Amino acid sequence: QGKQKKARKYAVMKRMISLRDERLKEKDRAKAKVKKKEDPSAIKEREVPQHPSCLFFQYNTQLGPPYHILVDTNFINFSIKAKLDLVQSMMDCLYAKCIPCITDCVMGEIEKLGQKYRVALRIAKDPRFERLPCMHKGTYADDCLVQRVTQHKCYIVATVDKELKRRIRKIPGVPIMYISRHRYNIERMPDDYGAPRF
User: Fold this and answer.
1) What is the pTM assigned to this prediction?
2) Which domains occur in the chain, in start order?
3) Residue-wise DSSP of the chain
4) Which of 13, 32, 62, 179 lies 20 to 30 Å from 43, alpha-carbon distance?
């Protein structure tokens, strides 16, 4: 009779001796942790992120004409597909002057898309667009846009990306511009700004 083959177990780690094992010398052994008793009279400190002064609950006082709109990569592509002029459609949506802002990482994403998206690149290089420099590494725009609107509450984010929308909805006081029925719409914009609610 031959030797029976055992099925090799995957992801099995080598057994290591515990640092509390008696077989180890005293100096190599791990010390038992001694719990410190909490002083009930001591003042408890906890770190709470500072709330921005521009927000009055959900009402953002920093938002007002001229609106600064952070544009995402897919928003430009969908605008071209819907045959919409970016700046004019923004003004039609908000009834005020709009300054589209484009970050370096969004520009990098459009450049990476290649020859197929050359029209989007030409639109992004429009002199009416305000260029915002990025200090982070890489060209992943979503994290950059989320971080930017968390720090500065003076932007409206223009995007069609569902994942990015979901992340921005968690940040209070940041409206989202999106495309539906061949026109721009705005989400979560207070009526007091003179912008329509759809």
Assistant:
1) 0.70
2) 63-187 (3.40.50.1010)
3) -PPPPPPPPTTPPPP---TT-TTS-TTTSPPPPPPPPPPTTSPP----PPPPTTEETTEETT--SSEEEEEPHHHHHHHHHTT--HHHHHHHHHSS-EEEEEEHHHHHHHHHH-GGGHHHHHHHT-TTSEEE---SSS--HHHHHHHHHHH-TTEEEE---HHHHHHHHTSTT--EEEEETTEEEEES--GGGT----
4) 32
